[in-house]
Specification:
Homodimer. Keywords: ATP-binding, Chaperone, Cytoplasm, Nucleotide-binding, Stress response. Pfam families: HATPase_c_3, HSP90. It is found in: Cytoplasm. Belongs to the heat shock protein 90 family. The protein is an alpha+beta fold. It has 4 domains: 212 residues, Heat Shock Protein 90; 144 residues, Ribosomal Protein S5, domain 2 (2-Layer Sandwich), CATH 3.30.230; 93 residues, Rossmann fold; 124 residues, Heat shock protein 90, C-terminal domain (Four Helix Bundle (Hemerythrin (Met), subunit A), Up-down Bundle). It is 33% helix and 18% strand. The chain is built from 18 helices and 22 strands. A hairpin with a 6-residue loop joins β4 and β5. The longest helix has 21 residues. The radius of gyration is 35 Å and the shape is elongated. The termini are far apart. About 3% of the residues have low confidence.
């Protein structure tokens, strides 16, 4: 037996691997299975030119737990390692035989190159997270000699002659006392299903004397689209999304060139049981050479987090940590490519109005977040938005709205609130309906925010009808205004004095037809819906005071404008007028009990 020192500062580096490089201890199995699958791939490739290296007919990676002896063995029929290779690849931290082999394949035809994993060179040492001693017995394919490499990960290792009937490698882990969970077959099978379900080499776990399959063994996303059935897509979608429905859209493609990755993504056909509004991160799974790495790589922006599926690349090292992922330029380019592909699919599907409505009703509120937070894609997302309208049935787009704008209409008009049914009946719409001007009705939570980041669309400003005064005289057509307005100049001053602590301004408006009064927001302040949200959040002070607009053609306002109106009655009526305007906009009266008493007294007086 020969004793050797590690070829690097093993104490510091092993400590880094064991305690810092990986977040979960179970990762060790992914790394060792990856190495085993890589060894099988390598032997298969070399057998193309050397028939003596041909793999056994039923080549597989075997995992054999022995709870009594507290040992875990991972065995593969791969290319194996000679004595020199054991010393070279396992005796030097951060040196990878796989990487050296990959470089030697630079001139080989692409179709013949195996998919290599474990290129970072430290994955093997993750075994020391769960084992206090590791033994590797290996026999190089094409040779008769086997050697055992052994170490406790404390600075040195030993090499000794060994015996192995066939070519390949056995890794024996002497498990730590606190790692016995990894000797339970069901736990091992669960880890394989999670991290390596789609490695194409069969993986088995010994249980009650039998080898039980642990992985599916088919990377569906790497198959040509023509070879995948709709049933296979649906089955995989339900597996990866934990869903029961049919996907609304399936995106399956391979990118080659500057970037090399395969992707299989799904847009669900129904809302998940766990609302996507709560979880803000995309959970598309990142694989490297078929091996699952993480579902927290942020492969899609938060506003596309409803998309499910897998992205698999060979341009990243297998054992890249989550922390390292965030700083990897390759991943940033993949994110951009995947995001653009999903947007392209949505644009195409949006041409079918009825079909797109199904998607919009499920995920429209989430997609709107892209307008608020993503400057790069803001215009593209805006074109995908759909709204209810005061003028047409069903859903409509901003582009369609602009195409219907009336002569003289300067802006896209919106009304934001909580309840779409209430919005459709809002007195805010009266003047717009009379003029035949369309208003988009927005009732999702995000609707109070995103218009701030999208001031215009196709050259037309987007304006809340509660936030700005509208000059209807510029807009062609519409119904006759009817009776001439009363002179309310004096009334406006009296109302302002009576409500001085509750409104910022009282003014006449021509945008009311049936209602006596309505609330508006100051032109440069937040609109009424944002003011309501700020008050609910306890930040009403920053919302400012609303504007009270009165209809000078309404009988009540004409009566209040009469010079003979008693001042005391006018002050009382001013408060009722403000409460009525608040109720019409979905707010509560300032003093609900007092308002109820005044209404009851008024009814009693009228009925007397």
């Amino acid at each position: 037996m020969e004793r050797h020192e590690f070829g690097a500062e093993v104490g510091r580096l092993l400590d880094l691997v064991v305690h810092a490089l990986y977040s979960d201890r179970e990762i060790f199995l992914r790394e060792l299975v990856a190495n085993a699958a890589d060894a099988v791939d390598r032997r298969r490739f070399e057998a193309l030119t050397d028939q003596f290296l041909t793999l056994p007919a039923e080549a597989k990676v075997r995992i054999l737990p022995d709870k009594a002896a507290r040992r875990l063995t991972i065995s593969d029929p791969g290319i194996g390692m000679s004595k020199a290779e054991l010393a070279q690849h396992l005796g030097t931290i951060a040196r990878s035989g796989t990487l050296a082999f990959a470089k030697s394949l630079a001139e080989a035809p692409a179709a013949d190159k195996p998919s290599l994993i474990g290129q970072f060179g430290v994955g093997f040492y993750s075994a020391f997270m769960v084992a206090d001693r590791v033994e590797v017995t290996s026999r190089r394919a094409g040779t008769e000699e086997a050697w055992t490499w052994a170490s406790e990960g404390k600075g040195d290792y030993t090499l000794a002659p060994a015996a192995r009937e066939d070519a390949g490698t056995d890794i024996v882990l002497h498990m730590k006392a606190d790692a016995e969970e990894f000797l339970e077959p069901f736990r091992l099978q669960a880890i394989i299903r999670k991290w390596a379900d789609h490695i194409t080499i069969p993986i088995t776990v010994a249980r009650d004397g039998k080898d039980e399959p642990a992985n599916e063994g088919t990377a569906l996303w790497r198959k040509p689209k023509a070879e995948v059935t709709e049933e296979a897509y649906s089955e995989f979608y339900r597996h990866v999304a934990h869903a029961f429905d049919q996907p609304w859209a399936t995106l399956h493609w391979r990118a080659e060139g500057a970037l090399d990755f395969s992707a299989l993504l799904f847009v669900p056909g129904m809302k998940p049981f766990q609302a996507v509004e709560g979880e803000r991160q995309s959970q598309v799974r990142l694989h490297v050479c078929r091996m699952f790495i993480t579902d927290e790589a942020g492969l899609l922006p938060p506003w596309l987090r409803f998309v499910q599926g897998v992205v698999d690349t060979e341009d990243l090292p297998l054992n890249i940590s989550r922390e390292m992922l965030q700083a990897t330029p390759v991943l940033a380019r993949i994110r951009k490519a995947v995001t653009n592909r999903v947007l392209s699919e949505l644009k195409t599907r949006a041409k079918d109005t009825e079909d797109y409505a199904r998607f919009w009703e499920n995920f429209g509120p989430v997609l709107k977040e892209g307008v608020w937070e993503d400057a790069e894609h803001r215009k593209e997302v805006a074109a995908l938005l759909r709204f209810r309208s005061s003028a047409v049935e069903g859903w409509t787009s901003l582009t369609e709205y602009v195409g219907r704008m009336k002569e003289g209409q300067e802006a896209v008009y919106i009304l934001v609130g909580d309840d779409p049914a209430a919005l459709a009946k809002s007195p805010q719409l009266e003047g717009f309906r009379a003029k035949g001007v369309e208003v988009l009705l927005l009732s999702d939570g995000i609707d109070a925010f995103w218009p701030e980041r999208l001031p215009e669309f196709e050259g037309k400003p987007i304006r809340s009808i509660t936030q700005s005064t509208i000059d209807f005289s510029k807009i062609a057509g519409g119904a006759d205004a009817g009776e001439a307005p009363a002179d309310v100049t004096g009334l406006l001053s009296l109302l302002k004095d009576a409500l001085k602590d509750e409104v910022s301004e009282v003014r006449a408006t021509d945008r009311l037809v049936e209602s006596a009064a309505v609330l508006a927001a100051p032109q440069y302040g937040p609109d009424l819906q944002m003011q309501r949200l700020m008050r609910r959040a306890g930040r009403g002070l920053g919302a400012g005071l609303p504007v009270l607009e009165v209809n000078p053609r309404h009988p009540l306002i004409r009566r209040l404008a009469d010079p003979g109106m008693p001042q005391a009655e006018l002050a009382e009526t001013a408060g009722v007028l403000l409460d009525l305007a608040r109720i019409q906009d979905g707010d509560s009266p300032r003093d609900p009990a007092g308002f109820a008493r005044r209404v009851a007294a008024s009814l009693a007086s009228d009925l007397a």
